[in-house]
Write a structure and sequence with these properties.
Two copies of one chain form a homodimer. The first copy, chain A, is of the alpha+beta class and 380 residues long. Chain A has two domains: 102 residues, Creatine Amidinohydrolase, Chain A, domain 1; 228 residues, Creatinase/methionine aminopeptidase superfamily (Creatine Amidinohydrolase). The first copy, chain A, is built from nine helices and 13 strands. In chain A, helix 6 packs across helix 7 and helix 8 runs antiparallel to helix 9. The interface between A and B is large, with 143 and 143 residues.
Amino acid sequence: MTKQNSIVKILNENKCGSVIFFRPDELVMSIGYYPTLGASFCLYPSIGNPILFIPKLEPLTFIPKHCTIKRYSWGTLGINPWDELSHLMKLELEKLNLIDEPITYIKDIGGSSPSASHGEGIPITLNILENLSNISTSKYKNISDKLITLYDIKSECDIKKIEVVHEVTSVAINTFYKNLKDGITEGELAGIVELEIKKQMDLNEKKHVTGWCYIHSGENTIYSGQYAKSSGKLIKERDVVLMELAICVNGYWSDTTRTGVVGESSIEIEKIFKIINHSQYLAIENMKPGIEMKTIDKIVREYIKSEGYEEYFQHALGHQVGFRYHDPGQGLNPDSSGILKPGMILTVEPGIYNPKFGFGIRIEDNILITKNGYKNLSGK
Amino acid sequence: MTKQNSIVKILNENKCGSVIFFRPDELVMSIGYYPTLGASFCLYPSIGNPILFIPKLEPLTFIPKHCTIKRYSWGTLGINPWDELSHLMKLELEKLNLIDEPITYIKDIGGSSPSASHGEGIPITLNILENLSNISTSKYKNISDKLITLYDIKSECDIKKIEVVHEVTSVAINTFYKNLKDGITEGELAGIVELEIKKQMDLNEKKHVTGWCYIHSGENTIYSGQYAKSSGKLIKERDVVLMELAICVNGYWSDTTRTGVVGESSIEIEKIFKIINHSQYLAIENMKPGIEMKTIDKIVREYIKSEGYEEYFQHALGHQVGFRYHDPGQGLNPDSSGILKPGMILTVEPGIYNPKFGFGIRIEDNILITKNGYKNLSGK
């Protein structure tokens, strides 16, 4: 029986009109599609071909056969992707006359290994949590939005541990610049940086040390604002090379970016470097308790606009970081309702990605808000 | 305000008796604890100290202060960990007189980055899915158990792609043996293997290539059946060295293990190697359509028992693999209700971890069930 027949049989036997597959492994399993961004949705109907909704940011490397492809906005400032996705899905279900049939998706897929490696998520399912919260006679109460605010403020003890992450980050950044040369691939350079990170394991209480390094070079840097992936492309003389770096030490995180050039820079590259460095300086210099996060974003966005590059800076200026690679909570962006407070740590990561020039540049540091101002944990 | 005060304030204001933290970043954020296994639970009450439930498998590397530690069984054959955990939590809530107060946990913590790197999960939350399934006038219908059966059978097209993963796996295994020598750390050897995996990127349509290599050496191999983590320990002459390897190419996965020795083997090491190799041979030779999975497990478990080592083989013999590092579905274990079918791929991974001898040995291959028997994808 083909995969399509198996899926349709399950839908028919269980009186469902359609199923949504969304986890990367579900997409591979059902239609052989592997997303880079992890935000593609396959609406698989009981009649007709599956419809794959891919974010516009996603590079179309693999296109599965026998699928209708629809693109939706995501990661673009000012557009709510979920409203757009819902609307597009609704149109498809109406066309197929399935709008009144139940929709399904796999709720809890779980994990079968007790050892949560970095190749898979933690194996705790919603079912397990529901059972645990049933211990109380009053059951579960949802106050997720309140609990998530706990991520905002890092204690002094947390900050000390995050400073240790930045020691490892500094080793990784030096390794990047030292090995930045023509003749090796992006993947190889990423591997060399990650190897150096692994060598830090167990030095001075660093029990768990993991790094994820992503290298973009030359024209690939145009997409550095969109997704993190090294390729097999050879790094060449005069290439702009961007490193996106996530490091986790004992559960605490840094998120930094560096951009360099192999050999000689052009005038255009130098110009954009200057604008990015000045953007970051403007943001950081204005960071202190009481300032609205959207104000910091605005200062940078207006400066970049004054230089004529606003259309090439499409992402947020920064987000909170420390307990995760991307902490939940408000960040530096035009729609933010956040206010800077002592103990917060935010990335500041202006970037200009110019398809006309054929390169992109981003610099990213992690800034701790102190009582009176800020401290750049990334050591500048 | 201390973290504890902040948590208790949220609980009191929202009339909750206790909160369960379980995601690794939540544990770090709330009590500074980073689990290796990803299956620790912190029951944080509105009165008294937090109680941390740690699986017995978990090495006690970090112990957070001001926490009561409770251990529960997990990853041990024949014990249901969740029943034990529920029971232990209930006792604590009764002691604290909080059994009638609502329990809470963070339902959807989300992700703030559109680019799902391997440092964090996909950013799609339960809320997003609930909204999407509300498109239909008949809403959501839960048939997760039926849909998960789709993972069981790999199509011919899937199998071809999984064979490509095993080409990369073979490169990684050769790199492991080539670099297996004294004087480097476990982390460094893991990094060298991962670097070689990264060099395969973009060769022959391998667009996405990622590898996770974990090295245990010497006495650390005793814990190789429990968790995956390289350390900063130096590899020494005569060490048994075990490599656990997860590789993902274009969304398809392999899961293999190799064990080697630096320099000369002892008689004891040779003896256990022979038993493990013969165990694996016995399992694989008996794999064909129609055979019960538990029968394969039994053959191996009885043979290891006849050699006197049954107490040192505590985990399942194998699990399904291919769309994930650990596919959902039935596997090779004593409680399995699965039956081998053509198109299934299972790991076969007997292991003996002997604290008395001071070392552990495991070999793991991935076996495809064919029409008439099997094919070892790991190339033996």
